[in-house]
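ESCALATION

Customer reports they have been waiting on this structure for their group meeting. Please prioritize. Original submission:
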Amino acid sequence: MIYHMNPLNSDIFAVAPIKFFLEKKELPDTEATGFFFRYNGFYFITNHHVVIDVDEGFFPDELRLLLHKKDDRKRTEMFSIPLYDNTGKNLWLVHPQLGKDVDIIALPIDGDKLHQYAFTYFCPGDFIPSEIDLSIGDDILVIGYPLGVRDTVYNFPIVRNATIASVYSIPFEGKPRFLIDSRLHRGTSGSPVLTKPTDIIRTTDGSVMQQPGSLRRFFLGVHSETYDIPTRDPDIDEPLGLNYVWYARLIPEIIRARTI
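Update from on-call: job pushed to the front of the queue and completed.
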């Protein structure tokens, strides 16, 4: 059976759930999200804390993604990505200046191994242009697998609504990230964050452009973790519902360092 899909919905094929393995054995109660990115080759993007967490004693040696087969999108198959080479050196790339302080890693992938799968990817062409204005309170989307929840027939991810909660153009706490207000859960670490598709674009000079029939969405960054404060008393204070998102522009910076 063939289903019609809005072209904007094709972004879900860029996103994949992650399972974690150590010495070929699945690590229980672990879920995360990542996505494909194309820039001088193919990469799989997720958080640094997803592939290693010293404080938690979390040291997987392999990621497995559940990807859709190209010939039948109801069929899925595990796609393995090793985290270390034969010498024990990690294969993931980190930011050349900030290292693991930027909670994003890029894993190189042989593009030839992806041809049998129905997948899409993000790229620098999806970044928001500098002349387009984003304001606090603007609606955005987070695509991922909260607590591993998905469409169990088609393996499609879940899309959560969010709003920009800090000034987008000013790095929050001096780091290259911003805050969003959203109800997110474990499993959405590594999720791509996008603007909500619209045909009305607000520019930084205060003007508004309308492009009927030409819906656009932009890739803003990578969701990382919940923002919290040590003085919050869990017995009387609800979680803040705030989350970190690292800027998308960090990804090409990470990848370019591979060739330097």
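Sent to customer with the following note: Residues 250-256 form the longest helix (7 residues).
Escalation resolved.
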